[in-house]
Write a structure and sequence with these properties.
Strand order of the largest sheet: 2-3-4-5-6-7-8-9
Oligomer: single chain
Structural class: alpha/beta
Distance between the termini: 47 Å
CATH architecture of the largest domain: Alpha-Beta Barrel
CATH superfamily of the largest domain: Glycosidases
Largest sheet: 8 strands, parallel
CATH topology of the largest domain: TIM Barrel
Shape: globular
CATH class of the largest domain: Alpha Beta
Length: about 450
């Protein structure tokens, strides 16, 4: 019987930067073991359990997928629930997405749907705002947002790996080098998900160990990527030149082995010590490795399994509260037109559960929606100064403290206010001296 593993420490709600810092801290010293779990989505931990059955240990990273077939897309909630469970049990969480091409239906088979060739003109249309294929693709991304938001609300950081192997031609998004190719579609997804407030996503960029090289031609840039990763399929283990090429792209960012068939060896980890995690692909765990090889890998001194992962800084901030803010007349605090443009008016509007009314009360005293902050225009402190949406910048204009049912801006000493108690849709909010009127009373999300 395999020996029982160490007792994992349950992870609390944690900001993503702590996981990034952890990966940086183990670079050169340790590597987190990982196991992917592909379809069916109704069994989102079946391969992780296989690793446990063989080794007596749970991997330090659980991997899942947002899927493509109808049955699996209909079971996405099972995947999200498993991700929450894995995080609370002390494993890191990784998600990828084998998305159907926007040129086919929203659900598809792998062959002809994910593994599909599209024309250069079709790809250009997908990344060009306002076109039919761009609208289709945005609707597909929008379907995923509520699931990822559940993980944000639960305080679960996610190693999010979209458009994997973008230097390969088997997928519809791949083999599109240059600033208007794979880099652009990746940037557009990040910009969109950021606008939806998904600040729990750790953005993992990925290529396959294609001997053609030139991987940097697909890189979306340092401001879009948190982790640089490699899938190893052309060879059993990454070569020295693969390792060097990825480091050249990553700079000081963590690097990872996002998909492998073979488990790593002591020799590999000694000669290539900067890998921060590896993830074995589903059925390849036992299809490409003997049980003895798997047990040996999990027992290597450098390998960190569940129970051996300690996220630094145990005093994690309170879990953010996200939802609607309601005021006088039962109206909601609303971003005009759901626009994330700097200077967009913040107003009262009929409550509708839309993204323009989804506010996150942060532990840093900010109030955020659509990836931006509730802001006192110009940092002014006078009565009647209007409220707007603006890039979060840590200024006093974006600080809010709850005082009973009022919201106080400490910099001005004034309070969030609906002018004159007006409840009409479109009433622009402002700051004003504290008073006992109902138009300074707000109900915040729990």
């Amino acid at each position: 019987m395999p020996a029982a593993g160490p007792q994992a420490q349950a992870f609390p709600a944690t900001p993503k930067q702590k996981v990034i810092n952890y990966l940086k801290s183990i670079t050169g010293q340790g590597i987190v073991s990982g196991q992917h779990n592909k379809e069916p989505a109704s069994q989102p931990a079946q391969y992780t359990q296989q690793a446990r059955d063989v080794t007596g240990l749970y991997p330090g990273l659980w991997g899942g997928d947002m899927m493509f077939r109808a049955d699996d897309i209909n079971n996405r909630q099972r995947v999200i629930d498993q991700a929450k469970t894995e995080w609370s049990n002390g494993s890191l969480v990784a998600l990828t997405w084998h998305a159907c091409s926007p040129t086919v239906a929203r659900t598809c088979e792998f062959e002809g749907g994910v593994k599909r060739q599209i024309t250069a003109d079709q790809f250009k249309e997908i990344v060009t705002g306002g076109t039919n294929l761009n609208n289709v693709w945005r609707s597909r991304m929008a379907e995923v947002v509520p699931y990822l938001r559940q993980l944000k609300d639960a305080g679960v950081p996610v190693l999010w790996r979209p458009f994997h192997e973008m230097n390969e031609s088997w997928n519809w998004w791949g083999n599109q080098p240059g600033v208007n190719g794979g880099a652009k579609i990746y940037q557009q997804m990040r910009d969109y998900f950021d606008s939806q407030g998904l600040d729990n996503l750790i953005w993992v960029w990925n290529v396959q160990d294609n001997p053609a090289g030139g991987w940097a031609n697909y890189y979306p840039g340092v401001n879009y990527v948190d982790v640089v990763s490699l899938d190893v399929w052309y060879k059993g283990l990454p070569s020295a030149s693969d390792y060097q090429q990825l480091q050249n792209i990553a700079g000081t960012k963590p690097i990872a082995l996002a998909e492998m068939g073979k488990v790593p060896t002591a020799s590999l980890l000694s000669s290539q010590p900067r890998w921060s995690y590896f993830m074995i692909w589903s059925e390849q765990l036992r299809g490409s490795n003997t049980d003895a090889e798997i047990r040996t890998a999990y027992a290597l001194p450098r390998v960190l399994n569940r129970g051996e992962i300690v996220i630094p800084g145990g005093s994690n901030p309170p879990q953010p509260r996200t939802g609607q803010i309601t005021g006088i007349g039962g109206k909601c605090v609303d971003v005009a037109g759901a626009s994330s443009t700097n200077g967009t008016a913040v107003q009262l509007w009929d409550c509708n559960n839309g993204t323009a009314q989804r506010w996150t009360i942060g532990s840093d005293n900010t109030i955020r929606a659509l990836g931006k902050c509730l802001d006192v225009a110009g940092g002014n402190t006078a009565n009647g100064t209007l409220i707007q949406l603006w890039d979060c910048n840590g200024s006093g204009a974006q600080q809010w403290q709850q005082s009973g049912s009022q919201l106080r801006n400490p910099q001005s000493g004034r309070y969030l206010d609906a002018p004159g108690g007006n409840t009409a849709n479109g009433t622009r909010l402002q700051i004003w001296d504290s008073n006992t009127n109902p138009w300074q009373r707000w109900t915040l999300p729990n």
